[in-house]
Amino acid sequence: MEITFEEGDGNGVVAHVTGRIDTQTAAQFEASLSPKVTSSAWLVADLAEVNYVSSAGLRSVLVLAQTAQHDDCRLALCGLSADVYGIFEITGFQNIVPIHADVSAALAALG
Amino acid sequence: MSLKPASCEVESSLDQLETLITCVQSRARMLSLPASLIHRVELIVEELFVNVVHHGRPPPEAIVTVVLERPTDSADLQLEVRDCGRAFNPLADAPEADISSDLQARHPGGLGVYLVQQLARHQQYARVGGQNVLTLLIPVPE
């Protein structure tokens, strides 16, 4: 898994994630994004290049969303494939964190 | 002519997950499954394998066997996962998944098994000759 960060306006960050978020990579995903969530006003995780998320990845998303709410960071996801979105939907995760079509839609929603 | 059931066998240690998934992917491709169904199979195998390692706790060198077949007379894929850990039925023994609490109250336990139960049409557990045997049917979209 690879993650690149792009700084946005108003102390925000876009994280572009590539690869799988599974049992073996979820800890890296969480550890890379967690400090950004803690120190930023907003964070958009772009998952357009992620084709697979297992429950380990969902667990990391939950921890990040809880951290974001606690630390007043506005967290959103975008670019989910139909398969990945399906996993979020089955587990009710579309109610945990805002999900947008792509980065520009996420930025527009954040204002 | 019928295809010999191809099985994937790995030691029951988390660092074997990638090897197992690669094997299952190649088996799924041999069966000409569509990409989104392959993802579904990978997910089910990952969740069950991780469950075996974490909860069944077989010795690390013990083998976990995954068999994926597409019976000619069925609209479903048949997936079998066998391990020789202590008797453990993830379908009955996993904590109930929380899919509706508010963000701060939400806890992540049981999500893996919940996903398996949602993605497979039928799941059956048996303890056979000192092995845990899980058999699942996964619908193949038309």
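The mean pLDDT of chain B is 92.
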